[in-house]
Amino acid sequence: MFAPTISTCKAPLSHLLQRCRRPTSLSSLTKQLCRHHERHSHSRLVLGIETTCDDTGAAVMDETGRVLAERLHTQKRIHAKNGGIIPPLAQALHRQFIDPVVQGTIKDAGIEMKDLSAVALSTMPGMPLSLRVGLDYTKDMLLRHPHLPLIPIHHMEAHALTVRMVERVDFPFLVLLVSGGNCILAVARGVGDFKVLGVTWDDAPGEAFDKVARRLKLQHHPDCLGLCGGQAIEKMAENGNFRLLIERGVPMSRHRDCNFSFAGLKNMANWLIQHHEVRQGLTASDDHHLATISDIAASFQHKVTQHLVIRIARAMLYCQQTGLIPEGNQTLVVSGGVASNDYIRKALDFTTSLFKYKLICPPPYLCTDNGVMIAWAGVERLRLDMGFAEDPQSLRFQPKMPLGEDISEQVTEANIKIKRIKFW
Ligand code: KG4
User: Fold this and answer.
1) Which UniProt keywords apply (predicted)?
2) Residue 235 — very low, low, confident or very high, per pLDDT cuts 50/70/90?
């Protein structure tokens, strides 16, 4: 695990030096500094808590990024059976599991609350009912441990920063966040400093994967039991022919920007499914699966990939033209649930290499929601001594919150044309 050299006592040391206003002998200052160093030389610990959507996660991490313990209760299987997330059910499950998840993590880490230096909590963006559980629980915990600072975390920023826990990735870098609720292409310039090149105008890619998977009834397919929509499509696509939609255009091809649209692709897949149902004498409510299910899954996945590839190619050219990413730092980080899709990863790998960019995806288990990424985002802030909530008890969650400054119009003005990129 990448463990950068850090000064664990930078901020407290500056406090100490500020306090030494009275003339102090050198030896007394040295003694104070030694005592100070003893107190702060151990790595500080952060507890991360995640409840933005359908995962209740917690992790304890030290400042070097070492995970002491983590626990995760995922509701994905339950929601998969219902064919989608039911927010009140998600809330009830968070309420049921948050205490065992958090307390279990602390116990597994072999620590007590007094050993922690901060609590990091994802407070934005996300589903209001889910966010509320994490915030209420944390506020209650902090009433009993008022010494602990709270670091509110932007869930999507946590996805963007996770990679720095496992690999050396310096700012600035290009980052694509693709999940069940978001699609964001941005330049990460620093902790809490993002420039957003584009976002989805309608569905998120994971949402489109989930809806097409449901329309294909993959939750009942013997090869896909327990898989989420995206995983099920990827699995079915393995042996499929991706050319069924090859004659169809790619979304937003007339918009020379870095925004996305997945609703049209979802409708295109739904049209294809209906067309094949008619041809094969099936109806949508039929228990049988289409004989061409793999081809449809592969074709949909291919179209999503094509769309992502074009927008990313434009982003790389834009960053090159504007100097937003200096030469030598050309890295694209891709994270979020959809980033665990191997087909998409391979196509992005090909595309980034064309533009002399390095593609980095965190390992799949870190691409989906978890407490580790929240703890890491907390560590990043703790190291910089920034981002603490002034009054944790009056903190509110924010269901919607942009990741950073929107520069999508500047991208449109740059009017960058992208030629077709043939990744296979
Ligand atoms: O980041 P994530 O765990 O959290 C939410 O946004 O909830 O992403 C979950 C999304 C789901 O929509 C799921 O279908 C999608 O990521 N996903 C995938 C794959 N694995 C998960 N989509 C495509 N291919 C995959 N292998």
Assistant:
1) Acyltransferase, Metal-binding, Mitochondrion, Transferase, Transit peptide, tRNA processing
2) very high
Which of 401, 328, 336 has its CA nearest to residue 185? 336
- CB of 362 within 6 A of ligand 1: the answer is no
- Domains annotated for the chain, with CATH where assigned, are 6-162+367-389 (3.30.420.40), 173-361+405-414 (3.30.420.40)
Counting from 1 in the atom list of ligand 1, the atom nearest the Cα of 340 is: 26
pLDDT(20) > 90: no
Q: How confident is the model at residue 85, as a pLDDT?
A: 86
CA dist 340 and 366 (Å) reads: 9
Nearest CA to ligand 1 atom 7: 180
Q: Does residue 368 have its Cβ closer than 6 Å to ligand 1?
A: yes
pLDDT at 169: 96
Beta bridge partners of 71: 58
**pLDDT (0 to 100) of residue 28:** 52
* Residue 10 predicted with pLDDT over 60: no
- Exposure b/e, 100-139, CB count within 10 A at least 16 = b: ebbebbbeebebeeeebbbbbbbbbbbbebbbbbbbebbe
Structure-block tokens of residue 182: 């978001």
* Token reading at 398: 């924010």
Under 8 Å CB-to-CB from 203, ≥6 apart: which residues? 211, 261, 262, 263, 266
Which atom of ligand 1 lies closest to the CA of 182? Answer: 6
What is the distance in A from the centroid of ligand 1 to the CA of 208? 10
Under 8 Å between Cβ of 79 and 87: no
**Is residue 135 within 6 Å of ligand 1 at its C-beta?**
no
Instruction: Answer whether residue 247 shows pLDDT above 90.
Output: no
Chain segment 179-190, per-residue pLDDT in tens: 888 999 999 999
Say if residue 53's pLDDT is above 90: yes
Distance separating alpha carbons of residues 313 and 307, to the nearest angstrom: 10
- What are the phi and psi torsion angles at 178 (to 5°)? -125, 110
Which pLDDT value is given to residue 32?
52
Alpha helices in 110-198 (DSSP H): 128-144, 155-161, 163-166
Cα of 127 vs centre of ligand 1, distance in Å, is 16
